[in-house]
Amino acid sequence: MIRANPNYSKIQANYLFAEIAARVKACQAEKPSARLIRLGIGDVTQPLPAACVEALERASAEMGAAETFRGYGPDYGYAFLREAIAKNDFETRGCDISPDEIFVSDGAKCDTGNFQEMFDSSARIAVPDPVYPVYVDSNVMAGRTGAAAKSGRYEGIVYLECNEENGFVPAPPKTPADVAYLCFPNNPTGAVASREQLAAWVEWARTNDALILFDAAYEAFIREEGVPHSIYEIPGAKEVAVEFRSFSKTAGFTGTRCGYCVVPAQCRAFDSAGARIPLQTLWKRRQSTKFNGVAYPVQRAAEAALSAEGRAQCKALVDGYLANAAIVASRLERHGLKCTGAKNSPYVWFDCGMDSWEFFDKVLRNAEVVVTPGVGFGSNGAGFIRISAFNSRENVEEAMDRIEKILG
Amino acid sequence: MIRANPNYSKIQANYLFAEIAARVKACQAEKPSARLIRLGIGDVTQPLPAACVEALERASAEMGAAETFRGYGPDYGYAFLREAIAKNDFETRGCDISPDEIFVSDGAKCDTGNFQEMFDSSARIAVPDPVYPVYVDSNVMAGRTGAAAKSGRYEGIVYLECNEENGFVPAPPKTPADVAYLCFPNNPTGAVASREQLAAWVEWARTNDALILFDAAYEAFIREEGVPHSIYEIPGAKEVAVEFRSFSKTAGFTGTRCGYCVVPAQCRAFDSAGARIPLQTLWKRRQSTKFNGVAYPVQRAAEAALSAEGRAQCKALVDGYLANAAIVASRLERHGLKCTGAKNSPYVWFDCGMDSWEFFDKVLRNAEVVVTPGVGFGSNGAGFIRISAFNSRENVEEAMDRIEKILG
Questions:
Q1: Nearest to A72, CA basis, from B334, B184, B38
Q2: Is there a contact between B290 and A113 if contact means CB atoms under 8 Å apart?
Q3: What's the confidence (pLDDT) of residue A42?
Q4: In a domain, A4, yes or no
Q5: What is the end-to-end Cα distance of chain B in Å, rounded?
Q6: I want to staple A375 with a disulfide (CB 3.0 to 4.6 A). Which of A356, B10, B63, B177 is the partner?
Q7: Which residue has the higher pLDDT, A358 or B13?
Q8: Cα Rg, chain A, nearest whole Å
């Protein structure tokens, strides 16, 4: 008899964005004339940079000619892209990451969801609360947790409290843990970690033979001097940290699909006897067995995003979203709402003074604006709201006009 | 301490194609002037159909304009593609598969590798021998097997013997098993299953509360009347079978990346109490948690492959490879070598009369042609060779001229 994976039944209710979609659909059915503005899901709205479009078109044409057609690409990504990434994303920040430590994928969601396959089923996972749900759900599905309590927290996970007191940047846990998921600039709070804070995490991982999974998908939004862009800016990180990056928010690739992860040669796990095992060997095996690379035209588009022209276009794109975020934050602050994020992040996170879903429904029904209830990211998000700056300037301004009317 | 997944260390030596690549590289280093012809890996060589290139280019341009830009697509694929698939790949064959039973992905390798996540860790897996290595390796990595014996066979797997006696089409096992991986037209043998043979499998799955994972990636190569193209041509299959398809071999998408799987609404697994659980619900949860859809331009290109124009172009492409396969088989048969495949498959499979790797090395060194050693697909492949028809006519003819010289 074919038994289903029993861990799937532990997963809490609906995935956050599915629940939002259902409520939005119900509202639209009731008010078909409403012109909804979406500042909920973190999806970009501006077109791809011209350099990327040109590269996509050129590579598409190449696929139609016998001399330039490409079949299976290298499992870990084309050298042209891995080299461009090493040079632009790491060498410029003084990080010693070589192209063969970079693994191209179809996005950071897949990579952060898949990476837990490298770990023993007994690995103790530490996650921030609030958190991007994929880190938790992928481990629940793999059987690394018990059941969920009423709070939504799973037995067996070490939760890292993020709150206004610590500026939503958790310190390493006192409870034992083997792997910590960190994300800076953070989704959902928009908080960034300082060099000292990240150094404390690297020290924790080195001391405890633990591993850091560092999600830097929003790195392109960092504008303040002194904020680390990569975990590898911290000495000693290469042994204890894997980093995830994405072209989704940097270059508008949410519908084009490209990301990568960095697994340094010296990054290690341990076998049952306590001997070191290079994680890179395991990840190579995983990717060559279960993945077949990213479309050639998409890899060419990602390469173009890293050209001089592409970098300038991406910066303009990100600048536009950052300016939107600043507008959102300044409008909310007028009403005494203290905001996190916005400065180095497309997200604005604030305490809405009531239940998250109550505020969500109020804004949906009365302002016809979609935001994200903070409680969907964890119990510490209760009473918080995340507003995304991914929209046109005009829509952001109109949405904030409407929201301000409600705030009174 | 972060422990590695201990199951990775059970995996046998090198992945077949990595070992071939290493031997080819060594040969090239010794004989730099050799003009190698590759009939090894199953990678297409002809350019994408014109309809697909046009669709890729058009969609790329759409991504560059604000009015037509697309961000995150639906997790399970755009409706335009799911509808085109339901109509062209199933309705035409009399199969009742609706668009919402179709899940678009970046390829059948990923889907066949990922689908085992739906099963309990105790599920007993049945695989043919010889077999496409991904089915086995993904289950080894998930801990569903013991160690490998000297033969390369893993403890805990039910092996389905495929040999000349049964025409490389195995009957359902007498040993208990919960899931069977089947692939027709087969990779590596090129064998196809008759309606009666598939009906026996569906009957087995229904009787034993088991599941069939049916890989139909080579469906487009079927030319003989009466050979089923889909497992859903067999009555009762929707409850007990998941089907995997790909645009890789049909439309030359190995470097463009698109496939899909079919998980019918009534397809079931069972919980620990023996109650039915719809596999579709689990797969939706898996995909929405760990996958973010396929690039929009790629989905448009796949849709174009299913248009009237695209279908004609794909057929011409596949016809060309089939004609190559017929040449390979007829040339080998001149030397008394009995071939399987070629008729409804791009692969030709034959007993080479010596050790597989010995023949591989002989052909590589003396004919400068790359083939695939059958033993790489399992112990029943020992002494066999797979030749792939994926190359230009000219190269296939020259390769066979060279091989015939060796055969004498």
A1: B38
A2: yes
A3: 82
A4: no
A5: 61
A6: A356
A7: A358
A8: 21
Structure tokens at A395: 């829509």
Q: Chain B interface, mutation test: which of A41, A292, A313, most B Cβ atoms within 10 Å?
A: A292
Q: A28: buried, middle or exposed (CB in 10 Å: 19+, 13-18, 0-12)?
A: middle
Dump pLDDT digits (tens) for B44-98: 999 999 999 999 999 999 999 999 999 999 999 999 999 999 999 999 999 999 9
Only one residue has tokens 């503005």, namely A37
Which residues between 242 and 301 in chain B have a beta carbon less than 8 angstroms from any beta carbon of chain A? 252, 254-257, 269-272, 274, 277, 279, 282, 285-286, 288-298
State the smallest CA–CA distance between residue B335 and chain A in angstroms: 32
Q: Which one-letter DSSP state was computed for residue A296? A: H
DSSP H or E run through B262 = strand B259-262
Q: Which residues contact A155 (CB under 8 A, 6 or more apart)?
A: A145, A146, A147, A148, A149
Q: Pairing between strand B347-351 and B369-370?
A: unpaired
Strand-strand pairing, B276-278 and A125-129 = unpaired
Give the ipTM. Answer: 0.96
Q: Which residues of A touch B310 (CB under 8 A)?
A: none
Residues A81, A154, single domain; the answer is yes
- Measured CA to CA, the distance from residue A32 to residue B200 in angstroms comes to 52
Domain with A207 in it: what CATH number?
3.40.640.10
pLDDT tens digit sequence for A110-145: 999 999 999 999 999 999 999 999 999 999 999 999
Out of A71, A118, A256, name the one closest to residue B43 (CB). Answer: A71
> Is the domain of B62 the same as that of B156?
yes
- pTM of this prediction? 0.97
Helix (H) or strand (E) holding B326: helix B308-333
Tell me the pLDDT band of A17, cut-offs 50, 70 and 90: confident
The range of the structural domain enclosing residue B198 comes to 53-307
Q: Which of B53, B7, B23, B72 has its CA nearest to residue B292?
A: B72
CA B45, B51, B56, B60 torsion-angle sign: positive
Question: Domains in chain A: how many in total?
Answer: 2
User: Residue A396 falls within a domain, yes or no?
Assistant: yes
CATH number at residue A338: 3.90.1150.10
Percent of chain A topping pLDDT 90: 95
Q: What is the pLDDT of residues A333-381, one digit of tens each?
A: 999 999 999 999 999 999 999 999 999 999 999 999 999 999 999 999 9
- CB-CB under 8 Å, B46 with A53: no
Contact B3 A271 (CB under 8 A): yes
Residues of B in contact with A277 (CB under 8 A): 4
State the pLDDT at residue B14: 59
pLDDT at B151: 85
Give me the torsion for CA of A196, A201, A205, A210, rounded to 10°. Answer: -170
Tokens of B325: 């396969």
Q: What is the mean pLDDT of residues B302-326?
A: 98
